[in-house]
UniProtKB/TrEMBL annotation:
<dbReference type="Pfam" id="PF03992">
    <property type="entry name" value="ABM"/>
</dbReference>
<keyword id="KW-0560">Oxidoreductase</keyword>
<dbReference type="GO" id="GO:0005829">
    <property type="term" value="C:cytosol"/>
</dbReference>
<dbReference type="InterPro" id="IPR007138">
    <property type="entry name" value="ABM_dom"/>
</dbReference>
<feature type="domain" description="ABM">
    <location>
        <begin position="7"/>
        <end position="96"/>
    </location>
</feature>
<dbReference type="InterPro" id="IPR011008">
    <property type="entry name" value="Dimeric_a/b-barrel"/>
</dbReference>
<dbReference type="GO" id="GO:0004497">
    <property type="term" value="F:monooxygenase activity"/>
</dbReference>
<protein>
    <submittedName>
        <fullName>Antibiotic biosynthesis monooxygenase</fullName>
    </submittedName>
</protein>
<dbReference type="InterPro" id="IPR050744">
    <property type="entry name" value="AI-2_Isomerase_LsrG"/>
</dbReference>
<keyword id="KW-0503">Monooxygenase</keyword>
Length: 97
């Protein structure tokens, strides 16, 4: 049996000018479904104290397979919507394990 190796993702998301409150509300809407996702160990949304347009979305997962399944889930369609609506100006995703 293979050992499960927990993984974490950190997404730094910058709101377009004047859209930070809207972005924050949409990101907070991800909390409940993300925490309920198979293999989710923790999930948080935080706003930068130094830059009101910068948000951090972080999640810890049981293993790479659980995180990959989450990234492929309909829950994350919100990112495509936010980019198309020009609510997000940039997104920088990092994975650690």
């Amino acid at each position: 049996m293979a050992l499960l190796k927990p993984v974490t993702h950190l997404a730094f998301i910058r709101a377009s000018s004047g859209r930070s409150a809207e972005l924050g509300a949409r990101l907070r809407d991800l909390l409940e479904p993300s925490l309920s996702a198979p293999g989710c160990l923790s999930f948080t949304v935080q706003r930068s104290q130094a830059d009101a347009d910068l948000w951090l979305l972080s999640g810890s997962w049981r293993d790479q397979q659980a995180m990959t399944g989450y990234f492929e889930s309909p829950t994350l369609q919100v990112f495509g919507e936010l980019v198309q609506a020009q609510v997000v100006s940039s997104l920088d995703l990092h994975t650690f394990g």
